[in-house]
Design a protein that fits this description.
The chain has eleven helices and 24 strands. The protein is of the alpha+beta class. The relative contact order is 0.11.
């Protein structure tokens, strides 16, 4: 049963759906042969048939009955399922019978964002393959991982179903490469699968070069007062740009809403950062993350499911031949906005990527295996309860001053603070009362870091990794990099 706040959205979705009520049965396109159904949750199954028609759904010894409503939509909910790698069939009957085969039960995750989420393991026009792509593809034989890629599409109003569908596939070398499936999502899913020893289903819905607003549902904007006007944005039906608020959500996320899943992965932000106009639009990104996450959770009507995302990587936005930012500090400021989202959003977490770039002129870092690994650490620790796994690096907690030294304390200093390469810590700057930051010497002292610089007798503030090309060597003993920060954050 949808919540009252959802009914207008769902009503629009039904009206926008182009399915004509013929005397035939249709099951939502996200369901199909080879899929994975989510374990340990109720599993909605829905579709369309003539109004009033009786529908029977059978799976794993369960039989559920429903009648299509006045719009021809029907839905049942399967009771909680146990993980199973034994192929089973889902049978839907309503005057005719549709049977989906080779279905497993396990963990299902949605992966979304722009080109760094979209980037596949192998070839992508205009990009270099991920690291060790050939070997990774050759080893990608995981029949109990199933992948589903949503085709790119736009819509002026929420659609009830996907228009173009390639279907669920067993994960293998050829399949992973042929459909250009997300490398970050694949590496994440591989680790979840091998660690938990259960089937994994991965649904990728991504689009390179896109901003966050087109992925956000109207209800998400409505939940954030400062963004509420965006929920009223009118989309012309003749030419819809993929920059328009809600336009991608309407076609590529709304039709998935309600499909039982464990959580979502997000890798996006570059397009919201880029720009040299004076509006400083990027400063609203934390609010927009709130709208996206809250909106998705509202339309799924399944509680605050896990939402893990990736901090965008170092890149020469300002330092490029044609600048894409007003200063080299715009990216660090954006990092703090992403970090704020990780702290403020319930059941959320962020992966730091300052150490995963081998070319600062390439906006698509090639090490997606480590991105997937770090996303998996968040899920294994926070979602699956493996508390022995450290899932984040050091994060700034508190500053105190002692003479000419600023002493910094950190959360998540698991196992101790370290310089990864054994050299002096890099990328620290310090300022006195005049607010002018200068390069600083930073030393680990137990579970703190002491920061100082010649000429700064009374330190006031410290910044770390505060430039777009920062690639610091400050980690915890678990091998996870420290999060960029500033102690003088004006946005707090």
């Amino acid at each position: 049963m949808s919540s009252p706040r959802l009914r207008p959205v769902l009503a629009v979705a039904v009206l926008a759906f182009t399915f004509s009520l013929r005397a035939e049965l249709k099951v939502a396109a996200i369901f199909g042969d080879n899929m994975v159904l989510q374990q340990q949750q109720r599993v909605p199954v829905w579709g369309w048939c003539p109004p009033g028609a009786a529908v029977k759904v059978s799976f794993n010894g369960q039989t559920k009955l429903a009648h299509a409503d006045a719009n021809g939509r029907w839905q049942v909910s399967l009771a909680k399922l146990k993980a199973s790698a034994e192929p089973q069939s889902l049978v839907v009957e309503a005057g005719e019978t549709k049977t989906f085969t080779n279905i497993l039960v396990g963990e299902v995750w949605l992966a979304s964002g722009q080109s760094n989420m979209e980037k596949p393991v192998g070839k992508q026009p205009g990009q270099k393959p991920t690291l060790n792509a050939e070997a990774e593809l050759a080893a990608a034989n995981y029949p109990h991982i199933r992948i589903f890629k949503v085709e790119k599409n736009l819509a002026a109003a929420p659609r009830a179903d996907l228009e173009k569908v390639s279907g669920w596939r067993e994960c293998g070398s050829n399949t992973l490469d042929t459909i250009s499936f997300s490398a970050a999502a694949y590496f994440f899913g591989r680790e979840i699968h091998t660690n938990l020893n259960v089937p994994v289903g991965l649904v990728e819905s991504s689009w390179g070069g896109t901003r966050i607003e087109p992925w956000t549902p109207p209800v998400g904007f409505e939940l954030v007062p400062a963004l509420a006007p965006l929920a009223q944005a009118r989309i012309g039906t003749n030419r819809i740009a993929n920059t328009r608020p809600m336009a991608i959500y309407n076609a590529m996320i709304a039709p998935l809403a309600g499909f039982a899943l464990r959580g979502a992965l997000w890798y996006q932000g570059e397009s919201n950062l880029m720009g040299t106009n004076a509006s400083n639009d990027y400063r609203t990104y934390a609010d927009k993350m709130n709208a996206l996450v809250s909106g998705w959770r509202r339309v799924w009507d399944a509680g605050s499911f896990p939402f893990y995302f990736v901090q965008i990587a170092p890149f020469k936005y300002y330092g490029a031949k044609i600048p894409r930012a007003n200063s080299p500090e715009m990216l660090p400021e954006f990092w703090t906005l992403q970090a704020r989202s990780a702290r403020c959003l319930q059941n959320s977490g962020m992966v730091v990527t300052t150490d995963l770039v081998d070319n600062l002129d390439d906006i698509h870092p090639r090490d997606k295996a480590t991105v997937g690994h770090r996303l998996a650490l968040l899920a294994l620790n926070r979602t699956y309860g493996q508390k022995n796994l450290v899932c984040v690096g050091p994060t700034f907690h508190k500053l105190r001053t002692t003479g000419n030294q600023a002493v910094l304390r950190f959360d998540h200093a698991d196992g101790g603070l370290v310089s990864k390469d054994g050299k002096p810590l890099t990328c620290f700057t310090i300022a006195g009362a005049d607010g002018k930051f200068v390069p600083a010497e930073a030393k680990i002292v137990g579970d703190t870091v002491g920061v100082s610089a010649a000429g700064i007798d009374q330190p006031v503030a410290v910044r770390f990794a505060w430039t777009e090309t920062a690639q610091p060597n400050f980690y915890n003993q678990a091998g996870l990099p420290a999060e960029p920060f500033r102690t003088d954050d004006p946005l707090k």
